[in-house]
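re: ur question from yesterday

yeah so i grabbed the chain u mentioned. its 1504 aa long if i counted rite. heres the sequnce exactly as i have it in my notes:
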Amino acid sequence: MAWVWVCTSCCRQLAEAVLPTPTGIGAEERTPLLDPTPASLSPGPSFLRVPGIPNSGFSCPPNNFVSSGPLSGGCRDVGLNVGSGSTWDPGATRASWPTAVLLADLEQDPRQGECALPGAAPAGLAPLKPEASQSSSPGPTSCMGARVVAEARMRDTDGAGPEPKSWLPHCDGGQETPDSGRGQLPTVPELPSVMLLNGDCPESLRKEEGPTEPPRENGLDEAEPGEETTGQEVIVIQDTGFSVKILAPGIESFALQVSPQEMVQEIHQVLMDREDTCHRTCFSLHLDGNMLDHFSELRSVEGLQEGSVLRVVEEPYTVREARIHVRHVRDLLKSLDPSDAFNGVDCNSLSFLSVFTDGDLGDSGKRKKGLEMDPIDCTPPEYILPGSRERPLCPLQPQNRDWKPLQCLKVLTMSGWNPPPGNRKMHGDLMYLFVITAEDRQVSITASTRGFYLNQSTAYHFNPKPASPRFLSHSLVELLNQISPTFKKNFAVLQKKRVQRHPFERIATPFQVYSWTAPQAEHAMDCVRAEDAYTSRLGYEEHIPGQTRDWNEELQTTRELPRKNLPERLLRERAIFKVHSDFTAAATRGAMAVIDGNVMAINPSEETKMQMFIWNNIFFSLGFDVRDHYKDFGGDVAAYVAPANDLNGVRTYNAVDVEGLYTLGTVVVDYRGYRVTAQSIIPGILERDQEQSVIYGSIDFGKTVVSHPRYLELLERTSRPLKILRHRVLNDRDEEVELCSSVECKGIIGNDGRHYILDLLRTFPPDLNFLPVPGEQLPEECTRAGFPRSHRHKLSCLRQELVDAFVEHRYLLFMKLAALQLMQQKASKIENSTSLENGSPPSLESKSEDPLGPEAGSEEEGSGASGLAKVKELAETIASDDGTDPRSREVIRNACKAVGSISSTAFDVRFNPDIFSPGVRFPESCQEEVRDQKQLLKDAAAFLLSCQIPGLVKDCTDHVVLPMDGATLSEVMRQRGINMRYLGKVLDLVLRSPARDQLDHIYKIGIGELITRSAKHIFKTYLQGVELSGLSAAISHFLNCFLSSYPNPVAHLPADELVSKKRNRRRRNRPPGAADNTAWAVMTPQELWKNICQEAKNYFDFSLECESVDQAVEAYGLQKITLLREISLKTGIQILLKEYSFDSRHKPAFTEEDVLNIFPVVKHVNPKASDAFHFFQSGQAKVQQGFLKEGCELINEALNLFNNVYGAMHVEICACLRLLARLHYIMGDYAEALSNQQKAVLMSERVMGIEHPNTIQEYMHLALYCFASSQLSTALSLLYRARYLTLIVFGEDHPEMALLDNNIGLVLHGVMEYDLSLRFLENALDVSTKYHGPKSLKVALSHHLVARVYESKAEFRSALQHEKEGYTIYKTQLGEDHEKTKESSEYLKCLTQQAVALQRTMNEIYRNGSTANIPPLKFTAPSMASVLEQLNVINGILFIPLSQKDLENLKAEVARRHQLQEASKNRDKAEEPMATEPEPAGGPEDAASQPQAAKDPPSPSLQG
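ran it thru and got these structure tokens back, copy pasting raw so excuse formatting
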């Protein structure tokens, strides 16, 4: 699979030191995800309306569905966050050129949810340079394309402290040298146009996020050396591939294109995947009689050049090679069989795209259908039409016709005669196979060192002598070809089909994705699976050197790899990612084995809950409170939550990546109602007592506490990015001990001399809203909302995103206070201003309540700008310069005190994680610090309620974020730092919102999530009481009680005839917690729903008004199929793919045969590819400056690097491909756009799930590109698929449905299916009206689209009526002089004329009867171009025609700006606006009815 392997060493071509990463670097610099700057932090351009561009009524589907991978919080599409490097940064060039943003490809900021754009200018114009309109097709993702070489040069930052967000490489505009000699770049005619893409943050957001300052890094005065801003120039160098000739036995020689950086091993991979050589696994390559080393690079092979002949030489087998060969043959035979994907094995997963494209797309859309194609059948199935109540489940996984694979063999399995006896071993026998051919012939086969041959053994008689035909074949396939004609014929067809499939349909994904439905499958014999099951893979791993893997050593060694330059960092990140995904897979397998009772405990005499296990060098423990460890924290409930908190801690420390500090590999697995924590083992820990091992922290929650200077030094480096305060606590002997983490965090030095930290469950500060402390009063916002509430455990922490958002919020406040004082000083010329000296908390609270809106900043905007600039200079110089004006110092000191900074000379807010921990005591000397810290925690709790939750609801109202299911809603909440336990509060706020109707979809998703989460909590304890034999009966009974309208379902207990008469009461190895194993059978629907309502009240503080599933569906407008999907995904249930009659009152919906499997739900860390991400961001920055071609180059390079680190499948690669497709589409290369988008869809299906909201988005993009390539029927079937998935995942009543239906309606209009088109367009109009308000510009566009279809049908009265509605909206919103209003008015005149002409004709007919002389009426079918233009508009892509002269002017303007920026870097600091950007002059509706950022651009702006 050569296309997967971007070669190991190709990156050595990349210059050393792109973006050097200092060792002690903070989390923000290493992981952009932790704290990107909000969008609004760059000077906003002035707003001029550009004639001819509709004002914001046209939508582009943004990717608001962030990747909700297996991680609860951290895993998101890194590739989607646009950099903030060009924001305020003394050393960086500041791009104030208005940005043209592909919003569909941008993400929400992880906390606030703004679109994180660098210069958040509203939809600007991206100047298209003439050469930028040429497509830069990347060629295959191998090392053969051109490489971008980045030479980093370091810039001095003109200041004491580093700017926190300067990790984005700044690509200077004029440095590229476009590579003329690049062979595979097809060029397309130059486009005389400029791309305008929908803008960015809606104005409403800007008010909220106002100020133009990025948050200063904590501890500004503690700048670490070597953290200068990194700029980079990008040049392209040629990397020439060459072709060699391959000579393999039995086939003609063929040429193969290779690259000098590839390894010999990669040619092996290609040959094992090629149709005519795929049956060989054990061979070497020879050049001029010399054998080539597997792991050498081709360029190091002497004499290898263009046209060299490489000979394939068969090598003798070993047992290991023979096993690998049999496994490979099995994989070839099963290559089209989806059973591994349905069973969730070996990282296989499902993809259905090929069913809908029907092979139309080819490799890059080469096969196009002409416009004069045969009439296509456009009628969708009944259940897809608007208004249908039916939600069938079967179409979710349509049957692929390749799945009924041709039978090559009936049985291929290991023989019972294995292993060979000693004397046969000495004849070279390695193992024996048993085969039944398709012709029913039974044969025994010997695998020997020389190859495979038939022997004379039968099932009962061993005779190893060769049988006739005496044919020895080096490959098993060749032998089977000889003895079975059916095998020969079918195997050839199978391989043809296999190679025709898209590679992305068959590569393994990095982490397993499970399917919640599966069809009834035949169970077939499978030797490899059988072997895997009984040897638990260890049999296979025996043949790996070093036996079972030492996971801890692998995980830590990869972290120690050097990281000085790009090739080293790529190598390191790839190794970390690979080991990590292997560890996750092994840990998951082990955890399931532990719960299924297949692993012996290391303490077998203890009761089952307390047992611990070691399997495959991984340590497993169960989520129960062993030895009352968590007695004070909530017992078993706390023990269940602790592993997830610990995992978040591990994730965070890994992201900070401090050299010398090690964490354990950690995976948390929920399976069959149990939580299992899998950890790598610290060397030597099992031989020592815990008391002796722990040299830092506490093993008894703060009674005995110890510290260690080396740990303090290492943890001090993490304290800045993690905002953790170094503090002192008292131990049991009243001695002061200094810590730089919570007391529970333990430091252990392993036998390998490494410093490990573990038990990171209190890395972040406690959430006081859920931790009532006697005698402590919470701020008013909290008490008003009914807090503090006692929670079921005391481990509730704030999320890292919340801590970051809070600190950022405080920094803005700090800047404002200081600027205010400076201005007052200036104005009154008083020596010592006392205005804010006391900095009293009450005034502070009132400030923090105000989300720093325009009101707060606007009045001082003029003079405040310079005041603010002065503060910045002060903040940077005060620490170093002792001679500064004492008054300025006073100002800073007051501001620091007011915002709770721990330093009085610079802004530095940190949290003490031990505050309010039971059992932790602080020394007398720290009482004041402790008091301040308590206040800070209370303020953070209030900030969550007064800023974050209202901010989330506001973003939902403005359609800035568009969650579609529970997972995407959770993701959106977590990005803003809102824990899921606040879901009830979010729903309360939605209910009270004045825009309640526009939040209907959020309310439904929220209620569904609340119900399924409550049900999951109940299901967890319910399952613990079920023994394995009753599992399917118990699960189907639970689902009946949860979803079926049948009033009294009866549980089926295991069949009586199988119950043994003599029950052995003392079974030692009972699964943990298996008490009375039939208690589950007495549950009733009434009882379950009563418990769900109770759980919703207790856990989420929300009152559900329903006593049964039917009442819930009725009251909240939910769908049972959606609830089934949500509960299955949350609990790992897999059900049979069939139609369920949920509403039948005569029989239950589920039987035990309908429950096919139960999978684990896995949480793990997601390692990142940092350099690739930086390239991706540079590319996006280029695109926003309008250099599309250069942007394309950089994003291609990012794609290569992502491939290098992650392999071919990953959510971030998916984002990269989506953006590339979009760019190619804009630059007019539809074939390349199709090819990239097809990969993005396949990858989204494989990595995120076939009905994940992100996949639905990708389908819509692909449909657009298909339409543009004239593949109309494909475009329609893709849109129908997207609509069906949306119906299953949510239902019809969702804002996204309006966009989908507009797309479908337009395509149907294009193929002249007018009646059908109207059904979809009118539904879109209704949905838009509901969610955007009847006066929004979106609705005006919808009216116009409907009017066009009525015009085509010659129903002019209806057409006029709709167009008038649209005209009225444009007139009121935009004024009579606006281009859109004029267009609409013109169209109205045209419609009126046609209507009058038609009426005249009709009158003529009435008067003169059939003899009338009627002029023929002209009804024009819409042209494809006009339909495509409308499609682009609604999907957020606008082309503005520009003449060549305009283009030249724009280019000159860009160049002029670039010089200006260079010249005025320092001067610019003084000109930043204070708090907000001016609102566009489009009336309040512009801001209020902006739906989703991507969909409604504020009016485009062009500066200059």
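noticed a couple things. The longest strand covers residues 147-155. also The chain has a mean pLDDT of 77.
anyway ttyl
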